[in-house]
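During the no-cost extension, the postdoctoral fellow (Dr. R.K.) reprocessed legacy sequence entries with the updated structure-token encoder. One reprocessed record is reproduced below for audit purposes.
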Amino acid sequence: MEYVQKYLDEVGQILQNLPQAEIAQVIDILTQARIEGKRIFVMGNGGSAAMASHFVCDLGKGTVREGETRFKIMSLNDNVPLLTAYANDFGYETVFAEPLASLAEPGDVAIAISSSGNSVNVLQAMEMARKLGLTTIGITGFAGGKLKEMVDVCVIVPAEAHHPDGMQHAEDGQWVVLHTIFVAIRHGMKAT
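Re-encoded structure tokens follow.
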């Protein structure tokens, strides 16, 4: 029981230090994209892929209201046949960049979820997104990795990289960030 309390205390400390200004920027960007009918593309690997899918479900369904514009949002990691075709034919590093090249238009939004901020396929997708004129957002942990320098807004969960539970702390924080964004948008709150 002692370790349970220790873990919860550690996560609580991380949550108290989440970057609220950056979270507010993301809320504003997504709210504007919704109003303008822009597409939002979300991506991640492993646990981050689960977060991407979940976030798309939250915004895509959980914000539907009579008379309000719906989000045009999709997770690039959910089409397994397309993902594996690109991985097989062009390499795993292309699995998000190539669909973006086909689907995205200037003014759309790309959200990369990567705890380390160093996933090569996510970084390549952010390069493609910038080339295409998309607004780019990173949801990451630790020190932000390479991703923090490649995006317009980066929400960094301040987990300790060398902590034995650092990855879980980062992921816990990322879930809270995503739910905070969703709940604020669902309630129609302006961040700024």
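The chain has a mean pLDDT of 96. The domain at 20-186 is CATH 3.40.50.10490 (Rossmann fold). The remaining legacy entries will be reprocessed before the final report is submitted.
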